[in-house]
Amino acid sequence: MNYQAYFTDALARLHAERRYRVFADLERIAGRFPHAVWHSPQGPRDVIIWCSNDYLGMGQHPKVIGAMVETATRMGTGAGGTRNIAGNNHPLVQLERELADLHRKEAALVFTSGYISNETGISTLARLMPNCLILSDAWNHNSMIEGVRQAHCEKRIFRHNDMAHLQELLAGADPAQPKLVVFESLYSMDGDVAPVHRICDLAQRYGAMTYIDEVHAVGMYGARGGGIAEREGAMGRIDVIEGTLAKAFGCVGGYIAAGAAIIDTLRSYAPGFIFTTALPPPVAAAATAAIRHLKASNWERERHQDRAARTKSVLAAARLPVMMSLTHIVPVFVGDPELCKEASDLLLADHGIYIQPINYPTVPKGTERLRITPSPYHDDALIDALADALVDVWQRLKLPLKAGALAAE
Ligand SMILES: *Cc1c(COP(=O)(O)O)cnc(C)c1O
């Protein structure tokens, strides 16, 4: 047996489909976001990051860095064990209280990542409901898809944000069957938002439980950063709220906030929670500092929206094919995996602008794009330079610019 051949073949298939991934070797500079150093094959170079999920720059906020450093100095680095065996550290307990309060739920539970919280959270809850039917949005993130898969129960996929379809599936199911509707609040590749209240209306009408992924919304939407559900006044209508500490909160880790019985059940049954080492105390303290700051401060949220709006309008005025969204995500359509990769390479090599290409399977084939995420720290000059660089790359690759109207649509 030539075992090596299996893997070289697997890699060759990715190359052939133009979806072999190359990671940029970056060094972030605290206090200077979005400036960073790119360790290029030719040596270190200054670049501007335009695709970070540290949406609000909280990963470099003095309060967050301070909490991490101070806690590491006082308590050391690792947690030293699982939650059950010596790892249940005080900063983590405090973080869970902070999260429960953020979402106005009875309790919260922290996992090592948002991915794990979805995977183990969805599968554990669904498995404990006899004959559960899961209704899952077609655009749900891979972590939710894996959670649904591992639940080993019946599932129906509803067309993305299509309420008529969801209703049809709910109405067609056995009224006595337990049901779980899983969806995201803000879909991060297009930047569109779920009709949260309408999903809750349907769930109520057909007696279903609701599970929302607010990963791309926590910290950024709602008066205290509780997400889209907070903004829409729907937090109390949703049974399970899942989020991350790794995006707008600038750290790492995931969580679920819900009623006390659900949280105690996950704590007691979810393998992805039980059999892994707890989050380190410095990380928990840093996340708490970020959440507390964003509960009280609106500056980051307002400036973030302002920067996203300005980026969209400057790019649209330059006739670039901006896919219009009502949120902070600024996707620019390419529609071809090779050109998307080439555009990204040219931006980095010739303009010092880092935007990772988004290709299949992250988005459907034929909808390849550059996904731009402006932060509060992308100033007017950086946005103008981005537009100029994109136009240059679009012309060199003979990608179509939009005809006619120069104004934002
Ligand atoms: C990033 C992401 C996750 C995973 O969160 P991590 O904390 O990065 O593991 C979950 N859901 C969605 C929609 C995401 O985009």
Structural key phrases:
15 helices; 409 residues; 43% helix; binds pyridoxal-5'-phosphate; 4-stranded mixed beta sheet; alpha/beta; 7-stranded mixed beta sheet
What is shown here, in short?
It is built from 15 helices and 16 strands. The chain is α/β, with parallel strands linked by helices and 409 residues long. The structure holds pyridoxal-5'-phosphate (PLP).
Give the termini separation: 59 Å
Mean pLDDT: 96
State the helicity in percent bands: 40-55%
Radius of gyration: 22 Å
Strand segment count: 16
Number of helices: 15
Briefly note the structural class of the backbone: alpha/beta
Strand content: 15-25%
Q: Spans with pLDDT under 50 lasting ≥5 residues?
A: none
**Principal-axes shape call:** globular
Bound molecules: pyridoxal-5'-phosphate
Largest sheet: 7 strands, mixed
Strand order, sheet with most strands = 4-12-11-10-7-5-6
Helix and strand topology:
Blueprint: H1 3-16, E1 26-28, E2 35-40, E3 43-49, H2 62-75, H3 83-87, H4 90-102, E4 107-111, H5 114-127, E5 133-137, H6 142-150, E6 154-158, H7 163-172, E7 179-184, E8 186-187, E9 192-193, H8 196-205, E10 209-213, H9 228-231, E11 240-244, E12 254-258, H10 260-269, H11 271-274, H12 281-296, H13 299-317, E13 330-333, H14 337-351, E14 353-354, E15 357-358, E16 369-372, H15 380-396
Parallel strand pairs: 3-14, 5-6, 5-7, 7-10, 10-11
Antiparallel strand pairs: 1-2, 2-3, 4-12, 8-9, 11-12, 13-16, 15-16
Helix pairs in contact: 2-12, 4-12, 5-6, 5-10, 7-8, 13-15, 14-15
Pyridoxal-5'-phosphate (PLP) binds next to helix 5.
